[in-house]
Fold this sequence. Notes:
With 233 residues, the chain is α+β, with helices and mostly antiparallel strands. It folds into three domains: 9-65; 83-195, Jelly Rolls, CATH 2.60.120; 205-233. Helix content is 30%, strand content 27%. The protein has six helices and twelve strands. The protein has helices at 25-33, 61-65, 83-86, 97-104, 186-195, 197-231; strands at 9-13, 19-24, 42-45, 50-53, 108-112, 117-119, 127-133, 136-142, 145-152, 157-158, 172-175, 179-185. The longest helix is centred in the last third of the chain and has 35 residues, at 197-231. The protein is globular, with a radius of gyration of 21 Å.
Amino acid sequence: MASDDTANVYTIWGLDQAPYGPVELPTLVSWVKEERVIADTWIFVHSTNSWEKASRVLELQMFFKARQPLPGAATAPTGTLTPGALRRIKILGSLSDEQLVRLMQVMKLQQVPQWTQLVKQGDHGDAMYLVLGGELRVRLLVDQKETILTTLGVGEFFGEISLFDQGPRSADVVANADSMLLRISAQEFEELVETAPDVAAPFLFAIAKTLTARIRADNKRYRDSISFSRASH
């Protein structure tokens, strides 16, 4: 029997591999309606002390069943975007529906088949990409040998420097699996800065916060490698 403290309390496993909560059922339902929580999102149900996918949580099943198309019914085209879908991208999570709708006007959906080399080191960049689905790897080729720098999954982004400097790409990006990306070109973003600074500013701020975290992580790895090198001599 569940106690009053754990009844209708949940923790959500986010796209950034971090837990969010605990939250009560009304908040969780609102996140489902906003598509911040989707059918495959993992949720810890405190009353049963277990992890379940959102679509299998009893209290949420009615919401996901309502979205399933009837047999023979037409489905939405692949190119359809919603604010809720964009919130799967970490840096867009804090934007309002109105801001996301404006941002969608300068973004294009791009399907990338598995093994496609989307970005080539040395080519001049002209766009940033956000990962809606699939997986990609960032690599360097040295003497025809591949070194993987990082792997990008749903909610992450790359190529952001191209919004400011259309210089040469610093690495290759290859699709490990069929992927769905959002593309925003440098030219389209410049127009967004001019016409909708209230959208461009929080978008840039979110990018800056992520880049700051990456730089700090790289600095730590560099310090650790120096410490290890000195300790081994």
